[in-house]
Amino acid sequence: MRDQRRADGHGERDPGDARAGEPVPAPSPTGGDGGHGSLITVLFALGANLGVAAMKLAAGLITGSAAMLSEAAHSVGDCFTEVMLLTALRRSGRPADRRHPFGYGKERYFWGLFASVAIFASGAMFSIYEGVRTIVSGSDEQTAPWVAYVVILLAFGIESVSWTQATRQVRREAADQQRPFLSYLRSPDDPSAKTVFLEDSAALVGLVLAAAGVGAHQLTGSGVWDGVASVLIGALLVWVAFRLAATNKELLVGQQAHLGLVLRIHDWLTARKEVTRVVDLLTMLVGTDRVLLCARIDFADQLSVAELEHTCVRLNDGLRAEFPDLDEIFLEPVPSDDPSVLARVRARYGSRLTALRSQLPEADVPDQRP
Question: Where can this protein be found (predicted)?
């Protein structure tokens, strides 16, 4: 038994009535303010990085600083990243169709993975190469270091504005899901804001490293310090690229919804008088603010077939009202003592669910509304 009817009251459309690629009516896959807020954050970051990249490149060429050239490559890589994120935001907003009945929300994760590759290839590798080359060559030439200092200060101010916007966006998304900031940052359903936040955070740290490298070069007369700063900037970008790639990989493979949401759904279903037991609960993120839910439920034995059908409809509507992030809902009646179902549940979760519930921070599991 399953019910896929939308909260707007429109029944499910027969797939045979739609040609491949023809949109099927569905809610906006961006969900809430997530799409609009992420778009502003990415555009903000793109504009900042375009200006900062030009300034850093000019400073690097004038001063001969490997650290400044590395920072220029860093900002150019960030620009490519933002272009990919804009592509992700546009393509993931397409409605569901016959070929993709769950929509295109995961395109955001695909392009987010490419963005992490861009950070690694264009920023990290160039920075490490330039740093090693400077150290090995032993170049001590430095011209007009004050130019580098001025550019670093200007870039720090611009990047701080972009970082503030990204931080606000991440905090807003975390608040929408009633989760702590760091918890959401570790496991977001929208990698766009996290990408910009980590990019800008790395940019601010990179500017400090570049300033230290230029300053040490000026004080000691040795270009080795400039090269070391460049290598450190590259290592920082490698870490950022790895973290973003890991996040998008998990989302592409099929990550479950946040445990706090899963437990709240479980408790909500268990509290219904028609439900004897929630046997199994499967969730998967299919896009930003979009969760697929499959619940295997042991219903009260006295329910007739007609009553069971109407119960599933009521549960579907109630779940959508209580948990707006739910996109597709599948409700399957099963007996609670079915050995094959229980074996799959034990193989998947074992005793971890109870243990995780006890370990989860209280702020991560909001109180269920009456």
Answer: Membrane
